[in-house]
Structures are given as C-alpha cells and as structure tokens.
Amino acid sequence: MKDVRKDFPILARHPQLTYLDSACTSLKPLQVIEAESSYYYELGACAGRSSHMLGREASNAAEGAREKVADFVGAKAEETVWTRNATEALNIVAYGLDYSKRKKVVTSALEHHAVLLPWMNLRDRGMITLEIVGCDERGHVSEEAWANAIDRNTALVVTNNGNNTSGVSQCTKNLAKIAHDSGALICIDGAQGVPHRHVDFRKENFDYLCFSAHKMLGPTGIGALVMKREQMAKLQPLVRGGGTVKTVNLDRVEPVSDYTRFEAGVQHYSGMIGFAAACGYLKSYGMENVEAHEKALASAMLGELEKAGVAVHGPKDLPRSALYSFNIRGAKAHDVALMLDKEGIAVRSGFFCAQPAMEAMGAKDGAVRASCYIYNSPDDVRKLGEALKKIAALY
Ligand SMILES: Cc1ncc(COP(=O)(O)O)c(C=O)c1O
C-alpha cells in the first residue's frame, strides 16, 4: 500500500505519534492545507455575489469544488448544498421536511447524537412520532427490525452507513429499498461511511446524504448535504438571509429555486476548496484501497485487542472500518486514554456523542475508541496492543 505518511505535516512534526483518533477528526495532508490556503493567497473575495475579477474567480473555484465533492459520492453539483458539517446537514433535513402527511420518523438506538437530538426535539415538541429501533445484544440492528418499524405512516428513515462506536457499516442500499417500498424517504448520516469506502448516492438510491470534510482529510467547518432534486425542491431551508433570494419586497420574498436557497450568508470558500482537494486526494489513493487498507488494519487490531484481553464492544463479524471501542476491565476509560497518551498513542474516551449506543452495547460508563485511517500502519496497531497489555497488567 502507498505510504502517505510523508504528506501529513503533523506526523512529520511528531514522528513518534500514533494517531488513532481519526473517527473524531482525520489529519490533513499538505495538498489539502495548501488548497485551503490558496483561497486566502489568491482569491480572498466573496463567491456568487460580486462581479469583479476576484469575485468571478472565487465563484468559479467554489462551484468547481462543489462539482468535485458531489462527484466523489456519485452526485451532481446541483444536488449538493454546502453545510458546516454533517450535524448541520442532518438538522436541515430534520427541520426542513414536511411531516403533515406522514408523521413518523424511524431511526435506531445506534445513532450519533447528531441524528438523535434533532428528531427527538421534534418528537418532544409534538411535531413527529419517533420510533427508535433497538439493537440486539451484539449491538446490531437487523434488516428485519428495520422492516418491522417502517410502515405506510413513515415519512423518513434516518440512519448511519458507518457506526462511530463499533465501526460497523450496514447495507444501506437494502435499507433504502425497505424505506422506499413503504413510500418513505431515507436520509443517510454518512459522517463515518463516506470517508472509508466508496459511497454512491445515486446507485444506493438515497434521498439525502450528510457528511463532513474533516473526517476525510478535509478542513473543519465544511460539510455537504446531497439531496435528490425533487426532495431539494420541497425542503425548507434552516437559515435564511443574503444570497438566497431573487427579489425581496417588504411584503414578499421570492427565493432562488436552486441549491443556493440553503446557503444563506457568506460561506466557507476556503473550506470548499480544501474539501474538494481532500476528495481529489482520496480519489487518487483509491477508495477501494482505503477499504482494503482498513480491512487489514481492522483484523490486525482485533487480534491485538484480543491478545491484550480487553472487552471489545459491538459486532466483530460484520463489514467495518478499522475502528473498535473497548474497555480494560476495572479501569476507567479516561484513565486508559491518558495512559495511552503517555505512550504516544492518541485515542478517544467517553461516549463518542452516542451515549444510547454505548449503553446498549453494555459500556455504561463509556469506553476507549481507537480508529485508523490511511496513514496508519500495522505497526501503529501493534504499538496499541503492546501498550494495552502493559496497562491491563496494572488492573
Ligand atoms: C456517525 C456520526 N455522525 C455524525 C457525526 C457528526 O459529525 P460532525 O461533528 O462533523 O458534524 C459524527 C461525528 O463524530 C459521527 O461519528
């Protein structure tokens, strides 16, 4: 596999660092950092507004970036809206959808708070009914359980295509079919799916796909919401303001009809350019290579965790990215994370913004999570295993 470590300035600055926290945020290669800063060096102006030379160049750069990010997930630029992150994309869907004909939304207990909180809020305000499908004892929701919950009153099914607590990816193409067979829409939280395998919006037949740049080598503060055009036309924007209207009189507003309706105010242009560069970087690495690399790391990591005798949460036998959450029996997760930090290993500890999921998997006080990306090697995983053995011996 191609060695990409040299592209990541943080790894050059900390040659001894084992970064196993990519599910929180990935490191960024020089190509992305340079692309993002090129906006400030070369463009500097607003896109989509001013007709002077720099304004036109900024518009071209922003629209070129939109095409690249859309293409990365098999979508078209006109189906793609910039957001701050996956969280904002999910909120746009939650608060923009019309629930007047069908009131029910179906999700699962294994979702990130970015999914649970907006729809729980709508439930608590009496705007929808929410069915939260439970998981089995392994921490998995079967297709049968989904199918039992989705019915002719379901407006929307919302779930992830990569779980941030267990690393498992569900077959969302099948879920889309189950949803559509009942006349429901499907919204995919792609925050942990899009970075780790090739996701095709059209082929998998999603209605909405939400993802963040920063988990896939891109900048923070920029994400995307991809929508089928007919769904985009019906969705209400979450934020209103400059850049979203054709005309405004004091008694009437005529909004634009395209994606810019959702992009009120001056936007994160440097982020868009950096996001497109991240997609370009991953494309040239090859998403099939990302998947193969992680598959090998996942099986090596499971071997190390088992040798170290830690309790691993979630299913071990399902398609996944190289991410596991686990506990050393008798040890607090935060203490383990701090001890790993002393060994130069960066991991996350806690509930990973998915408390119901962690509790459902039996990690009532949280856990430690190690997650890999393309710059990790089998050595990183071995180092984790060795350190965990030493820490486990203290308990
Ligand atoms: C599965 C999942 N969904 C949504 C999010 C939210 O992503 P962001 O914080 O980039 O909006 C995360 C972030 O950790 C995640 O792991």
Overview features:
395 residues, alpha/beta, Aspartate Aminotransferase, domain 1, Aspartate Aminotransferase, domain 2, seven-stranded mixed β-sheet, globular, binds pyridoxal-5'-phosphate
Walkthrough of the structure:
The chain has 395 residues and is of the alpha/beta class. The protein has 2 domains: 129 residues, Aspartate Aminotransferase, domain 1, CATH 3.90.1150.10; 253 residues, Aspartate Aminotransferase, domain 2 (3-Layer(aba) Sandwich), CATH 3.40.640.10. It has a 7-stranded mixed β-sheet, sandwiched between helices. Strands 11-12-15-14 form a 4-stranded antiparallel β-sheet, with helices on one face. Strands 1-13 form a two-stranded parallel ribbon. Strand 5, helix 7 and strand 6 form a beta-alpha-beta unit. The longest helix has 22 residues. It starts with 8 loop residues before the first helix and ends with a helix. It binds pyridoxal-5'-phosphate.
- Overall structural class, as computed from helix and strand content, comes to alpha/beta
Our Rg estimate from Cα atoms comes to 21 Å
Shape: globular
Tell me the span between the first and last alpha carbons.
38 Å
Q: Concise description?
A:
With 395 residues, this protein is an alpha/beta fold.
Write the layout of secondary structure elements.
Elements: H1 9-13, E1 18-19, H2 30-43, H3 53-72, E2 80-83, H4 86-96, E3 104-108, H5 113-124, E4 129-133, H6 143-149, E5 154-160, H7 172-181, E6 185-189, E7 208-212, E8 223-227, H8 229-234, E9 245-249, E10 252-255, H9 269-285, H10 287-308, E11 311-313, E12 323-327, H11 333-342, E13 345-346, E14 348-350, H12 355-360, E15 367-371, H13 378-392
Parallel strand pairs: 1-13, 3-4, 3-5, 5-6, 6-7
Antiparallel strand pairs: 2-8, 7-8, 9-10, 11-12, 12-15, 14-15
Helix pairs in contact: 2-9, 3-9, 4-5, 10-13
Bound molecules: pyridoxal-5'-phosphate.
